[in-house]
Amino acid sequence: MDALKAEGGDDAFFGLLHLGTAAIPLLIDEAEMPENRPILPSLVEVIWQTRSSQAIPFLSKALRDPEPEVWKSALDGLVTIGGPDAVRALRIAIDDIEREPSRNEVSKEWLCEALEQIGALT
Questions:
Q1: How many CB atoms lie within 10 A of CB 105?
Q2: 78: nearest Cα among 119, 42, 38, 18
Q3: All domains of the chain, ordered by start, with CATH?
């Protein structure tokens, strides 16, 4: 994690990505630690770059993050992973926004566009 925090942490990013899906639970634990907040956008991306549906609950939660880099990365991840679980996560996020306006800049339009990109809207 320290190497990811260092300037030019690309080697650390790709090293974590190389660990594969087995590392997802560990990466999620690290992402939830307050001291890793500065690298949260990178951790979110590493997690979704595994392209595992195992990451979807974490990405769904990250959509609620106030930091645009975090929720935008989570949205990218849900679109990239796709599938029924990602569609369900996006639809839940839309329902949440309709019940209570978002505390960040993610909008119903962004979420509907993501669904469209997955192919869930026609």
A1: 11
A2: 119
A3: 2-118 (1.25.10.10)
The 10s digit of each residue's pLDDT in 44-72 is 999 999 999 999 999 999 999 999 999 99
What gap in Å lies between CA 113 and CA 94, rounded to an integer?
11
pLDDT digits (tens, 9 = 90+) for 8-55: 566 777 777 778 889 899 999 999 999 999 999 999 999 999 999 999
Distance CA 79, CA 90 (A): 9
- Residue 46 carries which side chain, given as an amino acid letter? V
| Cα–Cα distance measured from residue 118 to residue 14, given in angstroms and rounded to the nearest whole number | 26
- The predicted model scores a pTM of 0.86
Q: Rounded to whole angstroms, what are the CA distances from 119 to 30, 38, 114, 116?
A: 32, 33, 9, 5
Torsion 100-104-109-114 (CA) sign: negative
What distance lies between CA 56 and its chain's CA centroid?
8
Summary count for the chain: helices (H), strands (E): 8, 0
